[in-house]
Each structure stands twice: as C-alpha cells, then as structure tokens.
TrEMBL record:
Pfam families to which the protein is assigned, alphabetical: HAD_2
Keywords of the record: Hydrolase
The keyword Transport belongs to this UniProt entry's keyword annotation: no
PANTHER family, sorted: HYDROLASE-RELATED, PHOSPHOGLYCOLATE PHOSPHATASE
Superkingdom of origin: Bacteria
GO molecular function, one term: hydrolase activity
Protein name: HAD-IA family hydrolase
Originating organism: Pseudochrobactrum kiredjianiae
Length: 217
C-alpha cells in the first residue's frame, strides 16, 4: 500500500488571498505593521501561532497567543461571507477522484490548518469519503516536525518508505525528509520550485495529473 499525504493550502486549495486578508486585518486591529503578500505566503503551512510570531517578529508568548485567537475570530467571520471561497486548483478534483479509486493507494491530509479548517475544506469539496487520515495544527507540532507524517503512517499501518508527501512549501519537503517519506513538490503554490528542490523534493509536479506517473514508478 502507498500512503499519499497532501498538504492543503497552496497544494489542494488556493487560499493565499483569504489568509493574507485575515492576517492583515488581525494586524491592523492590533495596531501592527501590515504584512506584505509575499510575507504572508512565506509562512503559509506553519502552525498559526508560529506563523504569526515569524511574520510579526514578536517572540512566542502571550501576545502571539492573543493575535492567534484574533486571527481565528477574523477567519470565522470571513468564512460566513457569501462570497467566501477556497477554490481547488485546476485538476485537483480529478486527481483526488482518480487516486481514491486505486486499491493500492490511501489518501491523507497533513496541514497547518486547524481541525475546524480541515472540516470546512473537506465538506466544501466533498473530500470526506476519499481521505482516510488527517493531521493538523490541533494534533501535532508545526511542520517541518515529522509527527504529522509519522502519525498518519502509524494510524494506517503504512510503511514510511511507501509514503509520499505532496506540498508547495519547503516546510512540507523538510517534514517528509525528516520522517523518511518521499517529498514531491508542486509548482502552483507559495514557495518557488527551486526552493522545494533544495529542501529535498524528489520531483516537482507541473500539473496535478503528473502525480500519477510519479506514484507508478
């Protein structure tokens, strides 16, 4: 059996705009310097409190935890807006449907989102039947710590040598490498492909359908 673990933001869904808007509103309300879009994109994938600490320069502690809770409140408010959307990248729906039909492949999710965020994405895109396992910010240390991958392997009984992590950031690639899994990058996310290669990606997907050939090797 092969275990294929997908990152979410920047890999399955294009949520960078929503995340940046929420981060900017949180910082504005706190009287902090507003982050640039590229600064927000740099920290997507990290657990939220670590991401906020990194982007703001504020050490981990009470102030960061306050900002983290304010970000969560902002995101919940934005999620209720009529035009809220975290759209799938082109070709992702077809890829997931195709992989789910293969008897020798199990699908999982490893993400810096909260459990609430995971449920929202799963329900919005009807992914619940396809993903057997998931780990998120509420379950494990932040990427690039290998816990998310290792716990998914343990839960499914899959060997880490037959596990693939698909992601768009260096954090995903480093997490996979630390766990002993195969890291595969994508070129449509938030970190540049050359950075993914330097961080340990065995391959860079140009389109979601390219993953099929990688898994067949």
């Amino acid at each position: 059996m092969k275990l294929v673990l997908f990152d979410c933001d920047g890999t399955l869904v294009n949520s960078g705009g929503v995340i940046h808007r929420c981060m900017a509103e949180t910082f504005a309300n706190a009287g902090l310097r507003l982050p640039e879009l590229n600064e927000t994109q740099e920290i997507i994938g990290l657990t939220l409190n670590l991401a906020i600490s990194q982007i703001s320069g504020i050490p981990m502690g009470a102030e960061v935890e306050y900002l983290t809770e304010q970000y969560k409140l902002q995101f919940r408010k934005i999620r209720l807006e009529a035009d809220f959307d975290e759209p799938l990248y082109d070709g992702i729906a077809e890829l997931i449907d195709g992989l789910a039909q293969q008897d020798d492949i199990l699908l999982g999710l490893v993400t810096g989102k909260s459990r609430r965020g995971v449920i929202s994405v799963m329900e919005r895109h009807s992914f619940e039947p396809h993903f057997l396992v998931s780990r998120c910010a509420d379950d494990c240390p932040s990427k690039p710590h290998p816990a998310m991958v290792l716990e998914c392997c343990h839960e499914t009984g899959c060997d880490v040598s037959q596990t693939f992590v698909i992601g768009d950031t260096t954090y995903d690639m480093m997490m996979a490498g630390s766990a002993g899994a195969t890291a595969i990058g994508v070129n449509w996310g938030y970190h540049k492909p050359e950075r993914l290669s330097e961080a340990g990606a065995a391959a860079i997907l140009q389109h979601p359908s390219d993953l099929l050939a990688q898994l067949a090797r």
